[in-house]
Amino acid sequence: MPMIHIRLAVVAGLVIWIAPLAAQDWTQWRGPARDGLIRAFKEPASWPMTLTRRWNVEVGTGYATPLVVGDRLYMFTRQGENEVMTAFDAASAKVLWRTSYPAPFKMNPATAPHGPGPKSTPTFAGNRLFTLGISGIVTAFDAASGKQLWQRPADPVEPLYHTAMSPLVVGNQMILHVGGHDKGELASFDVATGKVRWTWNGDGPAYGSPLLFDLGGTPQVVTFTQKNFVGVSLEDGKLLWRRPFTTPSNTTSQTPLLYKDMVLQMGRNNGVVAFRVAPGNPEWTTSEVWRTEEVSAHMSDAVAVDNVLFGLSHLNSGQYFALDLDSGKVLWRSEPRQAAHAAIARAGNTIFSLEEDSELVVIRLNREKFEPIARYKVAASDTWSQPVISGNRIFVKDVSSLTLWTIN
Hints:
Layout: E1 7-11, E2 14-18, E3 52-58, E4 67-69, E5 72-79, E6 82-89, E7 95-102, E8 123-125, E9 128-132, E10 138-142, E11 148-152, E12 168-170, E13 173-178, E14 185-190, E15 196-200, E16 211-215, E17 218-224, E18 228-233, E19 239-244, E20 257-259, E21 262-266, E22 272-278, E23 285-292, E24 303-305, E25 308-313, E26 319-324, E27 330-333, E28 342-347, E29 350-355, E30 359-364, E31 371-377, E32 388-390, E33 393-397, E34 401-406
Antiparallel strand pairs: 1-2, 3-34, 4-5, 5-6, 6-7, 8-9, 9-10, 10-11, 12-13, 13-14, 14-15, 16-17, 17-18, 18-19, 20-21, 21-22, 22-23, 24-25, 25-26, 26-27, 28-29, 29-30, 30-31, 32-33, 33-34
């Protein structure tokens, strides 16, 4: 793991902080590999009592994770009746460009406490930014200038709780599940033109993001739908396998994980399940390896650390847990009532958990017990977005503002 160096420059007698070297780009939902792994981070010898706040700016509402690419920061939010993509200088928060489009919509009363979104994190790839708006508008922007390259309008019917899915970009394909819960389709769009390359319309969208797994030697898009967990061919969208899967209120919002050759399936009141996928003639098959009902997950994604799964179970009003990935055995559970939601990332054996009450908890992964080592208040309002850790910088999005903190 590369060393992180903090550089200080002295100009006219003032000490000016300069961004750290070897900071990791954060280009999409849950990081470069969509797995919550922070690769460019060196833990301090001792954690400070407080973090240092560098800047705070109003950016608009929504749950989208900020993206960090080089010295730029990209943020997708709602401002009034518009959805807005903004590029900032990451060190100073100076606005480099801002592009918006009209996006009026009527909220489902059940989602009113969540705010008007957007809930989907953009994806940066090939110097383009791809977004999914709260009502289903799909847009591609030029990342250098902010120019809108193409846009697909919202469908007449949208998911019951609006959209919450981050685009998957693989080569010249951008993949999203669009449309309503009864008439949606998983679609591959050409990244340059927005032209549809293939679709699979076997089920409507859920609220988790698709991933690319290589299973049985075949690259495939793996995602939850309204009533299923599916794998479709990356090449043509052909359905390869399907497992029935539902949660209460059909609010599946998990991001699948791959451990060795096993797919990890989680969801509210469904426990944690590991299964294998095997090609067949003509149909592929799935076989369960292990299952546990002791822990489960609602809206909080877990991380894998070596052979341990670390996450926040929604059971018992929120319990952190560690689970052995080879056997499915639960190693420990924390005391109840930890948090209703936590956005989790990890660097080596260090876990960062941003709880919804704006507390960032730093946890040492321990197979024997729950071991928090530092707690920091990082916002003045609720925090439902994923924190972005890049070098010694921590970017935190709350209800309507974005803050840069540093670990000194």
